[in-house]
């Protein structure tokens, strides 16, 4: 057959006398290279690859197998993958059947036996799990391609006789779980090595298809035919690639040599020809995943596992990473001794803090029960870390000097931040930070007294102002004649009291349960006016007054009470919001009027009268003066800090929050209506679920209290194996922790876990959203009126309390209890994928921006890249996984932490390797986002601040740990931009909505809910959609609004959703 006379000689595989036929002429039928290539790629996509591009390269290598003897300098092919990655299945179910007799799987071979089997032949050897071989270095040395002919030579034989000579020109296929480095010739950095990586298969993914013998014959024939037919084109393309090698080497720097290009030329040529039409530009580049970073991955993983390891010493459990920090930063000798016993010691090398690792001892102690790690493996991979030095003499104690791998402590800290240990360290640092902050805010009595002596204790005397107590209509007219003569803003404050003692403390704060007793006003003159509303009324106040610029501290409080009384002031500034905007701190951090007066005005503001009885017929002089001083200092505080808004370029951020006050005031007063019958049914359901779960737990454990950690400890200690108990998280007193987060780690070993999870969940729902919610219902309106805060978060997002509407369960049955009363309908709108949209605009990631411009669901787009399918083929499960991937890596999750994040928040179960694969593909897809993240992380470390699109800035103290800085840098601009858009939207909606027919009743992150008259629903929906779109454009004028806002309606929250 003429076709076989080209590169393949008569279908014979082996040269010389020893040969086998691996293909017959009858099998060869003309086939398209492109179609054949697609078939191979499609089959390979059944596995989880570390990079989408790997599929093309692996397909090209497989198709070029029969022709490898005609190509010089072929690279060594590496396939990495841990247990359950499908690595062996790929070899045994596809490659070997496809090229029967052309490939040979070799188990536990020696260099000599390998040479005899394949020397002077074209057989391709496949070494599976090769790192376990006893003569590893000999095997690798055999395939060192050092000669100009691209092959090695092996000589062996009986002494006294002429040695046998075996030429080795093959492309060996090494299937392994890691890449060794401590091999003669620096094997892992060999510039002829191409490394592929498989991740653990997802559980929902079906097992790869097994090819039948006939299917293998057909595909094999198609491959031979298509490659031979295109051999001239491949050869000419190879020459084109070779012409570009100088530019490639120059662009990649010292990562590769010029000879590397030859290793990939045939593969690149085949891919280019097969993919022509999709990508007509010849990209003569070596894939980044084939070198450099891949070499370091395993080092990071091993080091992360070491840092995560827990050891018991004298009855106390220790985390290795904590011991390291303690040993180096606190010079703790006891912790150093514990580390040394486990093969780890801190040291100093030429002025640099390092950690030395004895891989042999680490294997004996930390990884004794772990078959994955060998001492060779541990040492090899640690050497890949930046700055690591191998075979160093290190002092481990008196008379104990060992050969070890030394790693800079700075590198360890970097890996700790990126490998999941950051969760442990960050928690400890947060706890320590909280202690420091408490210490700062908890002064000693002596220091407090000393500080008080330097403050102004009598503001009235200091500012030389008097108080005029207004009790008649005539006095009121005279007072306002004076107040309105000035163009300055007027400070306003109120004092309230509960209508009924039965309402308790909240009575004085709730507009529906309280009355306003005093209104205090000050505009910078010589008098503060205090109006007693038991003597005069708000109707006596001139309308002109409510049109003037007013200033309050925590203006939402005053606005809610005034609006409830039918008063609607338009221009109201808030010193709390100004302080929040200028400092970047929340209301929890010294934003009270008392604290701000101390800091800005050096005034000691007494609050003794705050809890006095404001309902008495005759108020005391102390009460009146106390009330007046609040108005005085609010005015003085505004004068002092307001100018800094323009100086610091923060006016726009402040105005955005200020404008949202009016709509939030109305929202607070409107409240949420609850169907009591549905709520009671839901409570009964939770109670029943809790009782049933408790009964099932007792069937397994006997008469036990599921809430008793002590009783659960007894069962765990009696039933869990020693290895598990050793790793189990413990309390400070040494008891096993029994929180759901800890139990979840061992759920497969705990037969009662699911029932216990249901028991705890139902119990929490019943107490928090059952009885707890009932207590929050207003006795006057029968509705929920949540307190809303504009300065409650560092990102600018709204927060709420009593109840916390921002954190309501997403359960459908729970949302159904929030209904529209008869004659009303709920209209709901939310921003679609708001945080991702904001990220796309801030980072200017072209892929993300284009997706939104074309109306593409970004979750589906990510899923298609990660799963290797088209967007139309993306399943519901794949989209859910992509949702976790998008939000997790958008906000700086590392692979280790992402595994827990995806599972707990989205119900997506992924292995660490799958998470690493997803992370890699995410940033390969959204390169602009990655570039922005790297840039802003550097900026925040340098400048100790980060800001939102409208200029709200969060500042950080010197010494703030880098992980926290970088985390905030990724969060604040995105979440802040989304928050600013919703606040702008609230302003537009408030201005256009007919509040007699419709009211905003809730705002949760990116969602706004309106309760509308049935005949006003369409208009309300239109105002809602347009307002939210305009709010977005106010912050992002060039933003794409296609599919931005989704509007729904219904008789309950779930139906509208």
From TrEMBL:
Residues covered by the DNA-directed DNA polymerase family A palm domain: 811-1016
Coiled-coil ranges (or none): 676-703
Keyword Hydrolase included in the entry's annotation: yes
Keywords in alphabetical order: Coiled coil, DNA replication, Exonuclease, Hydrolase, Nuclease
Domain 3'-5' exonuclease residues, every copy: 467-646
Entries under Pfam families matching the protein: DNA_pol_A (PF00476), DNA_pol_A_exo1 (PF01612)
SUPFAM superfamilies documented for this protein: DNA/RNA polymerases, Ribonuclease H-like
The protein's assembly and partners: Single-chain monomer with multiple functions.
Family of the protein in this entry: Belongs to the DNA polymerase type-A family.
Protein name: DNA polymerase I
UniProt organism field: Candidatus Kentrum sp. SD
